[in-house]
Amino acid sequence: MLYAKTLDKQPKFTDYPVQIYKGPTAILDMNDADARLFRTRLSEGLKQKPDYAGEYVAVGWGCCAMCFSLTLISKRTGKILKVFGGETGEN
């Protein structure tokens, strides 16, 4: 938010309207190694409504005791964005 403080007017969500994708849900694109590795969780996530940028579903899963991974999947294409994850606290 440091950048936003330098602006004359701070951005708002209403400044960036999106249209919610309402077409058919694509199947998970299995060309990605992460999609193949986490296919069950990601396929289940595609059943949810879009919750980011009008067409993406945020899907997360635990990867060990103090770890959490997250990705965004396009309901339109079935492609995932980069999987993000890491430790959530002290060991």
- Give the low-pLDDT segments: none
What is the N-to-C succession of helices and strands? HHHEEE
| Integer tally of domains | 1
What is the terminal separation in angstroms?
A: 29 Å
Approximate strand percentage: 15-25%
Helicity, as a percent range: 10-25%
Number of distinct beta strands:
3
* Number of H- or I-type helical stretches: 3
Q: Determine Rg (CA atoms, Å).
A: 16 Å
What strand order characterises the main sheet?
A: 1-2-3
Q: Main sheet, how many strands, which sense, barrel?
A: 3 strands, antiparallel
Averaged pLDDT, please?
87
Structural class computed from helices and strand pairing = alpha+beta
Describe this structure in words.
- With 91 residues, the chain is α+β, with helices and mostly antiparallel strands.
- The chain has one domain.
- The protein is 19% helix and 23% strand.
- Strands 1-2-3 form a three-stranded antiparallel beta sheet, covered by helices on one side.
- Strand 1 (56-64) and strand 2 (67-74) form a beta hairpin.
- The radius of gyration is 16 Å and the shape is flat.
- The model has no long low-confidence stretch (mean pLDDT 87).
Could you write a compact summary of the structure shown?
The protein is built from three helices and three strands, in the order H-H-H-E-E-E. With 91 residues, the chain is of the alpha+beta class. A three-stranded antiparallel β-sheet has the order 1-2-3, with helices on one face.
